[in-house]
Write a structure and sequence with these properties.
alpha+beta, nine-stranded mixed β-sheet, two-stranded parallel ribbon, 55% helix
Length: 603
Amino acid sequence: MAVVEEQSSIKGGEFLIRETEASQIFIPEEFTEEQQMIAETCRDFLRTEVHPRLDEIDAAKSPELMASLMDKAGELGLLGTAVPEEFGGFGMNFNTSMLVAESLGTGHSFSVAQSAHTGIGTLPIVYYGDEEQKAKFLPKLATGEWKAAYCLTEPDSGSDANSAKTKAILTEDGKHYVLNGQKMWITNGGFADLFIVFAKIEENGETDKNLSAFLVEKTFGGITMNEPEKKLGIKGSDTRQVFFNDCQVPVENLLSSRGNGFKIAVNILNIGRIKLGVAVLGGAKGSLDQAVQYANERKQFGISIGRFGAIKHKLGEMATRIYASETACYRAGQNIDDAIADLQAGGMSEADAKLKGVEQFAIECAITKVHGSEVLDYVVDEGVQIYGGMGYSADAPMERAYRDSRINRIFEGTNEINRLLIVDMLLKRAMKGQLDLMGPAQAVSKEIMSIPDFGADESEALFSKEKKVLQNLKKAALMIAGAAVQKFMMKLSHEQEILMDVADMIIEIYVAESALLRVEKLMDTKGEDAVALQRDMALVYLHDAVDKINSAGRSAITSFAEGDELRVMLMGLKRFTKIDPINLKDARRRIADAMLAENKYIF
């Protein structure tokens, strides 16, 4: 089924039907010295300006504190990473901007404010603004002179964003749109100078089907807001309800074209998803550092708790999941950079190429968002457990990390919506002929009716057995997805439980494959002995993934198959989720011991 991809780049979603070579993926070890210096600048800023003031930030007594931190970040250039150089930014490529997001990931509420400003608050203008809009707004946003907020969500429109009720009506003289409506959960609302507002234009009593986007300056008037929301976590981020009451917006402040707002929102969300997926891993690494340090310091029964197997299991698993998720993020990030370069070489403008490049890998963006946010949740949960009673105390760092983590499974589209999107986008691309899923799926359906090949794999190539496992896992996902499509046809969208199971299988396949390819690439350059621990992590993750895929597959199959079909599909699933056992306990212990020796996450 799997065909080795010979081209320089691979299409989004194609990992499910093609075998990628290790040489074709980017790994974090390949970041240049300059990129590493940028990352260190970000971490230094957090250490000096943010970490000492986390309690003060979370107290949220005034929005001025966060605004002043944003000013300082702007002075260092941390707000202009994705803004083109001609407008006062650095114009960094996609993967470098991902590295910046990760490096700022331990900033808690500050990270939320910064990412909202630089991402959803700035990128719509970078990608959709006309030259006048870019020249007017981007230099101010890049320096932090102006702060931005993004106003999409409303009380009755969350995941269904295009159902928003905020209206925009053109004045009789044709010079202004008058905005009326309510937005909620608006990050940076209390100190924003510019609001990117999504509304539906109403004309002659008829309301547009799709949203439009407007650049609304605070000075326009007609803007009021509630006090900051009281939240479970990210307490220091300024989150408001914002009201627009006869707010007059000049027609030249319409962003892009009429009715293009929903497309803007969707495309910017794609970027936000993968950026969140990597940013949370910065937070996860910080929490793992703290867990390792506490495991070394805390003594029970006369020894450090880090010497106990139960704690080593947790530390080893935390590191493994971070390592694998990080690899998936930067693999996808480089795919996006490569796609952008190819599109520009074909004559597409830089802004259009960046949007199209991200759109091509929207499936991977959703995968990394879901996986990264759930890795962070796992890490901070186990971090609290390692701290024991102290983990529940507000005087210890895990309490804040635990609370702040939870929002990431809701931000940028809930993880449930993203899981549904992963499968939906794959199937739509297949229906459009952009991705040949049906051919491989039909081949798998024939294979499960044949006698299994019990012959040993004679290949001596590196990770040949593990790659065979991955090929089989892909077959399992294709088998179930293909059968579900045949069973439900156009009604499959109503079978969300099945779609969620299939999405879980696809997520695990992509992440497990990414980790294995990273280690293979490292072995080619450093040798097997130098990356023995990384090999442990890749194999631990793969074995865990096999178990998860088997469980999700069984759940999906038993949701729709009966009789002989059920029996055959379960046999096929069993065949496709086999893996030779290894001693996972010892592997996790080796990973944990290495971190305990260095007193931090070292990978």
